Amino acid sequence: MFVGDAVQVHGAANGFPGYVDPAAYRTSLEYVRDELRPQHLYLGHPYRRADGTPYGVELDAAQAQEAIAQSIAVEGSVGEAACGCLRAGLEETDSPYSPFARAAEELGYTGDPTLEPSPFFTSMHGYREHLSQNPQHS
Q: Cα separation of 22 and 19, whole Å?
């Protein structure tokens, strides 16, 4: 089974996961964890653990469960930071993370968000869109 970018943990070399639709991303992770329960998982890139060490691109069952669990936890942390930033109101600053500097600081993200494509801004925009379409989640 190839899941590709469905399991991003802490992102690839840039250190940040990138997803356009955070709700769909979480749902896909939960589906892979709960329904598919992969014995082997093939990643599209060597995504990284919390300590920065990369997973291989082929994971066994235990590594797959670890990567999925970490991906869900990371999405939760990114979501809390992004939504907190959005609820407080976006501030334009001279930070390269502007207007999401507060979220980057809360997450301890120090990667270069100007590299294209920027997974940081892709994900932040995903939360912005999700909250604008689902105001009951704010």
A: 6
Torsion from C-alpha of 87, 50, 48, 80, nearest 10 degrees: -10
Is it the case that residue 62 has pLDDT exceeding 70? yes
Give the pLDDT confidence score for residue 138 in this predicted structure.
57
Q: Give the type of residue at 75.
A: E
Per-residue model confidence (pLDDT) at position 11 = 84
CA angle 59, 15, 125 (to 5 degrees): 110
CB 132 within 8 A of CB 124: no
Angle of helix 22-31 relative to helix 119-133, nearest 10 degrees, comes to: 100
d(CA 18, CA 75): 10
